[in-house]
Structure formats: structure tokens, C-alpha cells
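Sample entry (151 residues):
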Amino acid sequence: MIDIGLSKMALIGAVALIVIGPEKLPRVARTVGTLLGKAQRYVAEVKAEVNRSMELEELMKMKTQVETAAQSVEQSIHGTVRSLEQDLAAAQSDGGLAAADTIPPSYQPPRKNWRLKRGAVPQWYKARNGVRTKALSGAARVARYRPKKFH
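Predicted structure, serialized as C-alpha cells:
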């Protein structure tokens, strides 16, 4: 990067003051400042784009690695299942096990308790009729029901 110190900046300012003149110098300095700001933002955007593309390439490599690992696991599982099916078929053909003994019962999810749904009272109904939905602590109850002082 260009090394610009305070002495070099002062020299550039003095030359600019002589060449451009004191009337136009503030406008030119403002224009140069905005152009430098735009250039810095552009460089920052380019750096960010390069970083994003590098991260994207790394993610693509990781994706291919994960896909190959998943395929190998899937193949090993299929091989194990096939060997178990063959062993099971061989055991059944020998007459060792009955078909009903080898297949476990299928899973059934628990049924939802429909009585709870039917018995649920809507919140708006509770609020309208003054049903308490939250328990009060002892201090809150005392503060709420304390008699008002007359002044």
C-alpha cells in the first residue's frame, strides 16, 4: 500500500492550494473524498464477493464429501438388510420360526386425549367471565386486596 504520512499530506495540500486556488479547493476536496469513499466501498464489495465464492466452493466440496459418505452408509445398510433377510428366509425354510413370530407388531402412535380438547375453555371466555388463569403470590395478593388509604 502507499505510505502517506502527515508531511506528504501537507505537501499535497499546499500544492493543491497553489494550483487549484482557495475558492475551488473545498469543492475539489469534497469530490476527491467522495470518489475515495466509492473506491473503498467497491474494493470492499470485491473482497466480500471473493470470500463468498471461496466459501461456496468449500461448501460444494463438503457437500460432495457428505453425499459420498451417505451413499456408502446406505449401501452398507442395504447389504446388512439383505443378509438379514437371507438369514431369516433360511431360518423360516428350515421350519425354525413361524412368520408371525419374526415380524414385530407395527408401531401405533398414542391417541390424543380428545376430552382435554373438548374440555378446554377459550382464553377470551375466561377473561370475559373473570376466571383466574394465573396464581397470585402471597405478597401480590396482599398488595391487590389491601384497603385503600383515605387522605
